[in-house]
Amino acid sequence: MESFAAFPLLSGNHSSRSNTSCSRDNVLKTVVFPVLYSLLFLVGLTLNGVAVWVFFRIPSKSHFIIYLKNIVVADVIMILTFPFKVLADSNIASTGLRIFVCRVSSVLFYLTMYISILFFGLISIDRCRKTLKPFRGTNSARLTRRKLLSGAIWTFQLVLCLPNVILTSKPPKSPNFKCSDLKTPAGLYWHEVVNYVCQVVFWSNLVTVIICYTLITKELYRSYARTKSQGPGGTICKAQSGGTVRKPGQAKRKMNANVFLVLAVFFVCFVPFHFARVPYTMSQTRVVLFDCKLKLFFFQLKESTLFLSSSNALLDPLIYFFLCKSFRTTLFKSLKLPPGTCSWLLKRGSDTDTDTDCTPMRDSTG
């Protein structure tokens, strides 16, 4: 039931050995992507393994750290699905393993993808709040609410996806089955419901990210204009000793780059895939309008952008390192690295800079 690929299953479009004239079993699918996902698995598992090790040593003392901890858990689960995808794409998986991919592995892949998207939206809101109200603190009640919200997100996604596991229960009628062939009628209907919900999740979070970073950009521009009018000492930094020091220009550039790293990762990883799904879905549901070559092109486009979505598990550690000072500090201490390590990468001149918390200087009325 190839026309049912509006919400592409990881294995339904990957592991099926199509016997139609529009076969997808080419070098790109069976060789190139398995190699890329194998590399992504090895590097991603290493980086996220370190991230888990570090985050277990960091208390959940801010909304941002709570969200990052949830993302790293989602990334680890996603990475663990890659070996099954590699076997299915390479056409070397057994029938039983392909059934497992249809019922479990692919469901976990998309479950973790949309959990990450939801937490990226929350991080964008948090970064926006920090930019507009940098001196607003937090307390245990707010932290507890964020933890409950995180638990609600995982529960919602699990409840949404669990029927896809339960209702993918039909035995395959031939070796060349697709995941949709294993679904009961109720499973096909629920799969369509999940498709629509995931569409809402992505597009609502895309709007949230755009709005938040539009507000962040405006505030940074206003802060820059105020700083320029007030003279060269444009940024006030609060040191651990309780005093304040001015860091002209450097801290502002660092903060700007850090803030927009979340935006860059979101757009690189998630936006291309969801835009590519539109023509891909049309090619699957409106067969008359697309010839074989065009259908194959959109399939390969979808697969390529799906790989970008998977690379989110590799890029997220950049957010942990560059945006989370607690993560860097704990990592360096755990590895017993000397002060000033990676200062060239962080563009910081001394260990004193590492121990500062720089925020844009605001008007007293702001």
From TrEMBL:
Keywords: Cell membrane, G-protein coupled receptor, Glycoprotein, Membrane, Receptor, Transducer, Transmembrane, Transmembrane helix. Pfam families: 7tm_1 (PF00001). GO terms for cellular component: plasma membrane. PROSITE patterns: G_PROTEIN_RECEP_F1_2. The chain crosses the membrane at residues 34-56, 68-87, 107-127, 148-167, 193-216, 255-275, 304-323. It is found in: Cell membrane. Residues 47-320 form the G-protein coupled receptors family 1 profile domain. It is a multi-pass membrane protein. Its main location: membrane. The keyword Membrane applies. One of its GO terms (molecular function) is G protein-coupled purinergic nucleotide receptor activity. PANTHER family: P2Y PURINOCEPTOR 12, P2Y PURINOCEPTOR-RELATED G-PROTEIN COUPLED RECEPTOR. This is P2Y purinoceptor 12. The lineage of its organism: Eukaryota, Metazoa, Chordata, Craniata, Vertebrata.
